[in-house]
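Supplementary Methods S3. Input chains for the assembly prediction are listed below.
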Amino acid sequence: NAGVMQNPRHLVRRRGQEARLRCSPMKGHSHVYWYRQLPEEGLKFMVYLQKENIIDESGMPKERFSAEFPKEGPSILRIQQVVRGDSAAYFCASSTRDVNIQYFGAGTRLSVL
Amino acid sequence: LAKTTQPISMDSYEGQEVNITCSHNNIATNDYITWYQQFPSQGPRFIIQGYKTKVTNEVASLFIPADRKSSTLSLPRVSLSDTAVYYCLVGEAGSYQLTFGKGTKLSVIP
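Predicted structure tokens for the full assembly:
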């Protein structure tokens, strides 16, 4: 049973470009979460999605960031017009209905030059 | 949201038992205590969850005193591969916004 799969593992973008981060949840999990981790910090919640629905995006910046979890395919976290401050590790997690036990992917490390 | 306090770092020799204590003085009646482990360049991994008394699984034990204002994660006979950051989280059942602090960086020494 494959775990949460994230790709790419590393992503380098220049300022102003777009970054697309993908996440395939564990089989049987319909709840997906995105977190961001800055160096030497704990993870910070960004958004919670179920299939085709955004449940809570209170942790996501209002501009340039968006997330989706379509009926078919992986969840996508999209960052438009990236800036240096977006450099971080972005982790996706998934769960069953037991939402406070979440299973994390290995993360995507975004570097903005 | 109950605030948690745990040591920034701990060192241990291989083969020893390690106990990491987390303080959560403002824990609410509906809150559970959950521990995650994070290796460098990896996402956090769920270790154990409890509400009161003692919980044990194949990886660790979690001790929670009657007043629930603290909890202790116990790792039996650690090995080098247990070197990681350990996070104590407190939250209500059904709460999906996991709140990670800075955790405890455990270094296991040969």
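The longest strand of chain B covers residues 84-92. Strands of chain B lie at 9-13, 18-23, 31-38, 45-50, 53-56, 61-64, 70-75, 84-92, 104-109.
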